[in-house]
Design brief:
Elements (H helix, E strand, L loop, with lengths): L9 H20 L6 H7 L4 H64 L1
Helix pairs in contact: 1-3, 2-3
Length: about 110
Amino acid sequence: MTMFTFEAVVADITASASGMTSAADTVKAADPTAGLSSVSTALPGSASAAAATALSTAWTERFATWATDATSHATARTNSASSYTHADHEASMRMQANAAANRGPAMAQAR
């Protein structure tokens, strides 16, 4: 029988969450519409001006949505890392308690 295992590297999960947060902050600070307003000013009433305005709106919404989603993803990764750490701690405590309980009778019999 083949047994599959995996290892969650909490430091890597935490680092990826930090990177995602940094990317989200960068996107939040970015102005995807820089320069598009000059199209409307240069070509008032034209199809290009209307398209530039629509593009500006779309990019602003998409950048904001991406940044929000990235922040949520980073939070989920941080929570995941915390859950792994907590589960590992709880498992370690149970193993220590079981080891202590198993040593007790053996030590008493040895005396």
